[in-house]
């Protein structure tokens, strides 16, 4: 059985507490449960992770590239949080690992502050999901399930 890796970056551990008017009241545990249901529905195992540290995310992207090349991983749903807008290192990791990534944002970043409009992840992502709340994770998993 192939796996879908869901990576969550800085501050996503605060879901449900941090700016609920923007991110909703659901917790990261709620997101994990939703992702598990979606993966079960499509016949995938779920590997769900969160880190506030850029280096951990980079290491996990490298690992994902190896797992995808070995045929064990379908792809990555990646909510990099604020690192989306600042991290060339994450861009380079995704590009270098040649891993299939769906960039995900709970809020519509394009309807928010101007500094959130640019993404270093988008140019190396297969697709971008933004503004659908935590349901965007389900949509991203569905998109990965459709890949050959």
TrEMBL record:
GO process annotations (BP): amino acid biosynthetic process; aromatic amino acid family biosynthetic process; chorismate biosynthetic process; quinate catabolic process
Keyword Glycosyltransferase part of the UniProt annotation: no
Gene3D superfamilies named in the record: Dehydroquinase, class II (3.40.50.9100)
A GO molecular-function descriptor: 3-dehydroquinate dehydratase activity
InterPro entries in the cross-refs: DHquinase_II, DHquinase_II_CS, DHquinase_II_sf
Pathway the protein takes part in: Metabolic intermediate biosynthesis; chorismate biosynthesis; chorismate from D-erythrose 4-phosphate and phosphoenolpyruvate: step 3/7
NCBIfam families assigned to the protein according to its UniProt record, in alphabetical order: aroQ, PRK05395.1-2, PRK05395.1-3, PRK05395.1-4
Subunit structure: Homododecamer.
UniProt name for this protein: 3-dehydroquinate dehydratase
């Amino acid at each position: 059985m192939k796996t879908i890796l869901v990576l969550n970056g800085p501050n996503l551990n605060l879901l449900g507490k941090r700016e609920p008017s923007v991110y909703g009241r659901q917790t990261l545990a709620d997101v994990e449960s939703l992702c598990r249901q979606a993966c079960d529905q499509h016949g995938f195992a779920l590997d769900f992770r969160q880190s506030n540290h850029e280096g951990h995310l980079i290491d996990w992207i490298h690992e994902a590239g190896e797992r995808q090349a070995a045929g064990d991983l379908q792809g990555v749903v990646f909510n990099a949080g604020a690192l989306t807008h600042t991290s060339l290192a994450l861009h380079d990791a995704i590009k270098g690992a040649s891993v299939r990534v769906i960039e995900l944002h709970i809020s519509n970043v394009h309807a928010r502050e101007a500094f959130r409009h640019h993404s270093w992840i988008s140019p190396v992502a297969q697709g971008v999901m933004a503004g659908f709340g935590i349901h965007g994770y389900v949509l991203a998993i569905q998109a990965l399930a459709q890949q050959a």
